[in-house]
Amino acid sequence: MSFTKQHLDVIEKAIARGEKTVRFGDRTVEYRTINELLQAREEIRTSLLNAAGPRSRVVRLYHGGKGL
Asked: Which pTM value belongs to this model?
């Protein structure tokens, strides 16, 4: 399933309220535990990051100037 920012918002609101039931349009999902809800949030976050494409990494090397 492809997730959207709205999915993440709904999950985060449920976590903030301590609720285990979330509604996405015409679908209702009831999680057994808050931990499952937290895991779902991480899955959605990961999916959104991966959909955004690869992130670039910057590595900076510094030399103190006192020989090797």
From this structure: 0.69
Residue 56 lies in a domain: no
Check residue 3 and report its DSSP letter: -
Tokens in use for 49? 């990051």
pLDDT in tens, the chain (68 residues): 688 999 999 999 999 999 999 998 899 999 999 999 999 999 999 999 888 766 667 777 777 776 65
Query: Does any domain span residue 68?
Result: no
- Domain count across the chain: 1
User: Distance (Å, rounded) from C-alpha 26 to C-alpha 15?
Assistant: 20
State both tokens at 10: 């709904």
